[in-house]
Amino acid sequence: MATRSLPGRESPEFTEALEALRHVRLRPEVRITEVPAPQRIAPYAVALTADVLGSAADDEDELASGRFVLLHDPSAPEPWGGEWRAVTFARAELEPELAADPLLGEVGWSWLVDALGNRDVEAINEAGTVTRVVSQSFAGLADRPASVEMEVRASWTPVGPDAGQHLLAWSDLLCTIAGLPPLPEGVVALPGPRR
Q1: CB pairs under 8 A, 24+ apart, for 80-83?
Q2: What residue spans of the chain are helical by DSSP H?
Q3: What does the pLDDT look like over 103-134, one tens digit per residue?
Q4: CA distance 49 to 180
């Protein structure tokens, strides 16, 4: 794992969290990559990026992407309300007609709340934004269709030691904004069209 910790200091709790993250089984459409962890935010950190692909065998059709960072600070910073903080980002392109939907932000946030709830993870001090980005091309690029992207940026303080369940909840959010149907535990997705 791409981790960062203070030299000469070990944290058994952080080591346990890393093991939990290593053993998470994500949907086959989700490709996860280790990336450098952020500096100066917490004494211990791990960072992962993920892409949701159109199918497990298709590396070309990216439906969504994002980043999951787990921070650990034994001093329990007051704004966190605990020793842990999950900081996440999820982005996907949506159909252009959704650009004008006044409830898009509320829907995006509810997808995060539902993902955490469906994994039965406890979280406190949730915070975040849902942003829609509408791109329209002109002049020499006028033949490009308009595009709409949704970005969900969120952070929360995990309650309890199971970092793996928080990673699974975040990956569920990624799959939801990618337009993939929910997948019950133990069920394998059949390949199909993009949405």
Answers
A1: 80/125, 80/157, 81/124, 81/125, 81/157, 82/124, 82/125, 82/157, 82/158, 82/159, 83/13
A2: 12-22, 104-118, 163-177
A3: 988 999 999 999 999 999 999 999 999 999 88
A4: 18
What sign does the dihedral 90-91-96-101 (CA atoms) show? Answer: positive
What is the spatial distance between Cα 84 and Cα 157, in angstroms, rounded to a whole number? 6
Task: Tell me the two tokens of residue 23.
Answer: 């053993």
To which residue do tokens 């898009």 refer?
104
Residue 183 lies in a domain: no
In angstroms, the CA 114 to CA 169 distance is 9
Distance separating alpha carbons of residues 128 and 179, to the nearest angstrom: 21
pTM of the full structure: 0.86
Inside any domain, residue 55:
yes
* Domain region containing 90: 3-177
18 falls within a domain: yes
Specify if 186 maps to a domain. Answer: no
